[in-house]
Amino acid sequence: MVNFWHQLAIINKPFLVLAPMDGVTDFVFREIIAGTAKPDVLFTEFTNTEALVSKGYDNTIHRLKFSQAQRPIIAQIWGLDPKNFYTTARLVKDLGFDGIDINMGCPDRAVMKMGSGASLIKTPTLAAEMIAATKEGAPGMPISVKTRIGVTTMVTETWIRFLLEQHIDALTIHGRTAKELSKVPAHWDEIGKTVKLRDHISPGTMVIGNGDIMSLEQAGQAHTAYGVDGVMIGKGVFHNPWVFERIPKNHTGAESLQLLLKHTKLFCDTYPSPQRFPAMKKYFKIYVRSFRGATSLIRQLMETTDFSEVEKLVKQYI
């Protein structure tokens, strides 16, 4: 299997990645972004390995749905038992993904209480077993890790060094501790330390920086200042769904509203149950902003119950 991470680093400096965000970067949202201003890499929402090897399979497998338009597409997984990482890795490879990413940075209390997510920073031996099991389950597939720089204090030197010694294909560093969540500016100097460690320990590992990047210009600045191969953007896409455009353009309010209709239609077609529709509402603010009547429109949209109601409202503003 061709290691696409290395190809990206040659083609684009830096390459751009849409951050995996639970409850946000589902199949539909990725499909919209892929057809609007596609990043170089897309990740699924993080998917629980324990659920995939149990009765929870049917309620979980939808997280691993993707289209050809989303390639290269990475399955991000999380859990606790290395045996389940092995089984899940085999499944992911059979599904045709381009790579597997292990989440070792989620700061959610419930996830960390289980000993997973960012808690793995405290249990490196278990983290190494997970990586090894994933490699064994999906031989030849690019394996990566997304993590933070510590749990309550920064441990970049020891933790990142340890991960690099596992010789993974790519390493995404969110430049904050789990305790900091997203409440403080990202410590990009710590991400820069990761690049220097990589150069000495595992030159073949691509380093991706994550934290506070809101534009293509900022991504370029991060690459220049800290030497990262790639830049991951999360909340920046909420401010601009075209954030990944290599040649930025001005987009009108009408374009944003047309994209809202496209997103809502695909969401309703993909998840036809009326009970799922409220989950669509968190996306409205991405598209409704900076034009006359936006405040009124968003208020009305929050009262809608299906696509036809959204369409009727929005068309009045296009």
UniProtKB/TrEMBL annotation:
Belongs to the dus family. It comes from Candidatus Gottesmanbacteria bacterium RIFCSPLOWO2_01_FULL_49_10. CDD domains: DUS_like_FMN. It catalyses: a 5,6-dihydrouridine in tRNA + NAD(+) = a uridine in tRNA + NADH + H(+); a 5,6-dihydrouridine in tRNA + NADP(+) = a uridine in tRNA + NADPH + H(+). Residues 18-314 form the DUS-like FMN-binding domain. Its EC number is 1.3.1.-. The keyword tRNA-binding applies. The active site is at C106 (proton donor). Keywords: Flavoprotein, FMN, NADP, Nucleotide-binding, Oxidoreductase, RNA-binding, tRNA processing, tRNA-binding. It holds the Pfam family Dus. Catalyzes the synthesis of 5,6-dihydrouridine (D), a modified base found in the D-loop of most tRNAs, via the reduction of the C5-C6 double bond in target uridines. The keyword Transmembrane does not apply. Coiled coil: none annotated. Its cofactor is FMN. GO terms for molecular function: flavin adenine dinucleotide binding; tRNA binding; tRNA dihydrouridine synthase activity. PROSITE patterns: UPF0034. FMN binds at Q76, K146, H174. This is tRNA-dihydrouridine synthase.
